[in-house]
Write a structure and sequence with these properties.
The chain is mainly alpha-helical. 82% of the residues lie in helices and 0% in strands.
């Protein structure tokens, strides 16, 4: 099966507006990742507000645990919303997911603390994160399928914006973290300041919702034969495709959540100031936002595989020395170098992953296949990455532990990439 065999035929004389389609599809992805990044960045404040404990480390672990547990429902959201997108349409699934995202965000923004409503506070925060996790489960598959099916001739570039918007979300979240830690006292942030970025996220949602209502289904999907049971087809005939797509994603999602974990890692384990940690993550957001679509453009010229292999090999060779440098010579500069390098390698690899995943699946199961594989990878290898890294550091007694985790993920993605290349060639 060649890569070109999965491209959609031109089925409509009138092309949708590129910029409008990009904004409408990527805004939900941006909102999803903004809320995720903000929750991770402000985990220590959320821990004290909703998960109080005698031991501050235990309080933080509870908050990070709630961050990870919310990812357990993502595969369910992927199954339900991905199936809905393949049967009823990409647009309908995208409208459902963005409405649910806004609901979860509103709950976190306005939730009273443990001191006010007791045990109801952590329970309701967990419910809000579960709602967000469910909605996010179907977002990636539906929106990426929507993009590549509208613009098959630009699939590498157009799909790279899915991940570029994740970088933009990280950038915005880090900007809030840097701004709040610079302008407000610890007490002010703890009392109410951490809610500001969540409130900002609520402004983005209605704009995306309005634009999504005025989009049309991709012609290739509208004219394609629909599967009565796309999930049955995936589970029966396309299990290998699911495993390959999961493998392609694991290193990308692992680095992404390591970048979200940086503020906690830098302040708790490296004992650097909060503004330095947020500054490093802010820089990572800039790199991810700017470099990812450039790499998507470059992939159209040189191909996707050379970029992906270069990124993986460099990551395996350099991630341990990078962490060793930061641990042995802790400073704002070494942290910036490590975070910037991870963000750059991620941008190169991560720009091509959505279009490659889309090529693995036929139109009839594309949204479901992408949603399920993406969210299994994110749940297992991403959502629990901060918790796993914290536990590894505690168990091994070394702050180098996160580098071991990332090297293992890079090897898994390398194996999936090699197999995918054989299937698509």
């Amino acid at each position: 099966m060649s890569e070109l065999s999965q491209q959609a035929p031109a089925a409509s004389a009138v092309k949708p507006n590129l910029h409008k389609t990009l904004f409408a599809t990527c805004v939900g992805n941006a909102l999803e990742w903004f809320d995720i990044a903000v929750y991770a960045f402000f985990a220590s404040y959320i821990a004290r507000a909703f998960f109080p404990a005698a031991d501050e480390s235990m309080s933080l672990l509870l908050a990070l645990g709630s961050f990870g547990v919310s990812f357990l429902i993502r595969p369910l959201g992927a199954i339900v919303l991905g199936n809905y997108a393949d049967r009823a349409g990409r647009k309908k699934a995208l409208l459902v997911s963005i409405n649910l995202m806004m609901l979860g965000g509103a709950m976190i923004t306005f939730m009273p603390t443990y001191a006010t409503i007791g045990l109801a506070a952590p329970v309701l925060i967990m419910l809000a994160r579960l709602i967000q996790g469910f909605s996010a489960g179907g977002e990636f598959g539906s929106s990426t399928a929507f993009l590549v099916e509208h613009f098959p001739e630009r699939k590498a570039f157009i799909a790279s914006w899915q991940f570029a918007t994740q970088g933009a979300s990280t950038l915005m979240a880090a900007a809030f973290g840097l701004g709040l830690t610079s302008l407000m006292s610890e007490a002010q942030i703890q009392e109410w300041g951490w809610r500001i970025p969540f409130a900002f996220g609520l402004i983005i949602g209605p704009v995306g919702l309005y634009i999504r209502r005025h989009l049309h289904e991709p012609p290739v999907f509208a004219h394609a034969e629909k599967k009565s049971a796309p999930l049955k087809t995936l589970a029966g005939k396309q299990k290998t495709l699911l495993l390959l797509a999961i493998g392609l994603m694991v290193i990308s999602t692992g680095i992404n959540y390591m970048l979200n974990y940086v503020p906690t890692y830098a302040t708790k384990n490296l004992h650097l100031p909060g503004n330095v940690a947020y500054g490093a993550t802010l820089m990572a957001g800039v790199i991810l936002t700017v470099v990812t679509p450039i790499m998507g453009l470059w992939a159209e010229k040189v191909g996707r595989m050379p970029l992906m292999w270069t990124s993986l090999i460099l990551l395996i060779l350099t991630i341990y020395p990078g962490f060793l440098l930061v641990v042995n010579h802790t400073s704002p500069m070494t942290l910036m170098l490590l975070v910037g390098w991870m963000a750059l390698l991620k941008s190169v690899y991560f720009s091509t992953v959505p279009s490659l995943m889309a090529d693995l699946f036929p139109v009839a199961t594309r949204a479901s296949g992408m949603a399920i594989s993406y969210n299994i990878a994110v749940t297992i290898f991403g959502g629990f990455a901060p918790l796993v890294c914290s536990l590894l550091i505690t168990l091994t007694g070394t702050t180098l532990a996160p580098s071991y985790y990332l090297m293992i993920l890079a090897l898994l993605s390398g194996a999936a990439l090699l197999t995918s290349k054989r299937r698509l060639s």
